[in-house]
Amino acid sequence: MEAKRIYWYTITPLDVLMFRDAKPFTPGERAWAGSVFPPHGHTIAGGLRGLLGQKTELNLKGPFFCYYENETPKIYLPRPLNFVGEKILIPLPWNKELALNQAMWDENKPAPLGTIKTNKEDEDDEEETPKLRRYLPYSVVKEYLTKSSIGKEDWKVKNPGEDKPWKIETRSHNSIEEGTKKVKDADGYFVENCIRMLPGWSLALGVDQEITTPVTFRLGGEGHRVILNRVSSLDEQWNDLVELSSENFKAKEKAIAYLVTPGIFERLDGGKQAKCKPWPWEWKIKEGNLVSVVSDRAVPLSCRIRDAQKSTSIPAPQVFAAPPGSVYYLEKPQELFQNSAGASEKSQRWQQLGYGELLWIKYHD
Fold first, then answer.
1. How far is CA 44 from the centre of its chain?
2. SS3 for 221?
3. Among 148, 130, 167, which Cα is nearest to 327's?
4. Domain locations in the chain?
5. Which residues are within 8 A (CB) of 99 and not within 5 positions of it... i.e. 6 or more apart?
6. Phi-psi category of residue 11: left, alpha or beta, with phi > 0 → left and psi -120 to 50 → alpha
7. How far is CA 288 from the centre of its chain?
8. Residue ranges of the alpha helices (H) in 119-255?
9. Pairing relation of β-strands 189-197 and 32-33?
10. Which residue among 95, 186, 232, 246 is the one 20 to 30 A from 22 at the CA level?
11. How far is CA 198 from CA 79, 136, 164, 166, 168, in A?
12. Using an 8 Å Cβ cutoff, are 162 and 76 in contact?
C-alpha cells in the first residue's frame, strides 16, 4: 500500500506552554507539578483534533524542532547518544583493536562499547570543552546518515538554542482564604513549570492531512494558543532523510538504527503484565541481529483511554518509552513489528502517533 503524503508544519507558541509529566498530581499532596518538553505525539494529536473539530485518525511524524536561520527554516533532530563528546562508540565485536576486548562480558546482553583513541587525545583534553549541540540540524543529520560519522566542528553550538531551545519559567498558584489575605491551608498553593521557546525556534510536525494555515489552536495545559504554519521546505528535508534511511536499510549490511522519537517497545510478559524495554522485543541478542544498545533514562508516558460511546476518558496504564537519540547496532537492518502487516492495533496506534521513528545508517569501519 502506498504511503500517505506527509505535510510539514511549524507550531509556534504565542505564550508559554504547559505539559505536565506522567506523575500523578494533586495540589496539597505535592507542591510541585512536573513538566515535560518537547510534547509527545498524543498531546499534539489531541490539540489538532480540537482544531479540526472531528474525531479523525491522524498519522504524525515528530514533533522535532525547527529554527529559522536567516529566514530559512531548518529541521532539528535529537543528537544520537552513541557519541562521547565528538567520539563515536563502537561495539567490541565490531572492532578487535578496542582495549576493552580484553575484558569478559555476558554475550546474552548488549555488547560493551568503546572509543578509538587518537594521537591528539592528550592535546584535546587540555583544550577548553566547547558547548555541544543537543539538537542537530538537517545538514548534520544527513551527513550522519551518509557517512555514519559526525565531524568535530558539527558538534559545536553555532546558533543560540542548539543546546536547549527553550527555558523554564516557574509559576506559583495561590488560593486565598475568603475574607483574609492568607493562602488556604489545604490545596492553597502549588507551583508549575512553564516552557518558553527561544526566539526563532518552533516545533516541527508532519501530518498526513493538508490544513489551511496560518491558524491557531490550543495546546497543552490551560489551553495556551499556538500558531500552525505550513512550511513546504521541511517536506524536502524530511524526504531526503527518509530516502537515505531507506537506501541504507536495503543494503543489508552492518547497520545503526537511530531513534528520533520516543520508542514504545511494550508487550505482555507471560500474558499477565505489560513490560517495556529500551529496545524492540523482536530484536534478539546473540541468536538475532542486535549487537548493542545506547540509551538513557526511560521517558514515562501517561495517556487516556477514550470511551467513544460516552465521550469520556479515563487514565490509561503508564508506559515507559526509550528516549529519542537512542541507538541500536545490528548485524543487518530489521524492521519493527509495529510496521509489519501483522502488527496489533495497539502497536500500530503508537506508530501513527509518531512514536518509534527510526533512521537507518550503514556502518562504516
1. 13
2. helix
3. 148
4. 7-362
5. 114, 117
6. beta
7. 26
8. 121-126, 138-147, 232-250
9. parallel
10. 186
11. 19, 16, 9, 5, 10
12. yes
Quote the pTM value: 0.88
| Distances 57 to 130, 209, 321 between C-alpha atoms, Å | 44, 10, 22
How far is Cα 168 from Cα 359, in angstroms, rounded to an integer?
30
What residues are paired with 19 via a beta bridge? Answer: none
Cell of 289: 541481529
Strands laid side by side in the 189-197 sheet? 32-33, 189-197, 166-174
Q: Which amino acid is at 162?
A: E
Distances from the Cα of 134 to the Cαs of 76, 91, 164, in angstroms? 10, 23, 7
Q: To 5 degrees, how large is the angle CA 33–CA 34–CA 37?
A: 135
Match 551518509 to its residue by C-alpha cell: 146
How far is residue 244's CA from residue 128's CA, in Å, rounded to a whole number?
Answer: 35
Q: Pick from 353, 298, 304, 275: which is nearest to 36 by CA? A: 298
Amino acid identity at 319:
V
| pLDDT tens, residue order, the chain (365 aa) | 456 799 999 999 998 888 776 555 555 544 555 568 899 898 899 899 889 887 778 899 999 999 998 889 999 999 999 998 888 999 999 998 888 878 888 888 999 999 887 655 544 555 566 789 999 999 999 999 999 999 999 999 999 999 999 998 887 655 555 655 554 555 545 677 889 999 999 999 999 999 999 999 999 877 789 999 999 999 999 999 999 999 999 998 999 999 999 999 987 666 566 788 899 999 999 888 999 999 999 988 877 666 666 666 677 778 889 999 999 999 999 998 877 767 777 778 888 999 999 999 999 87
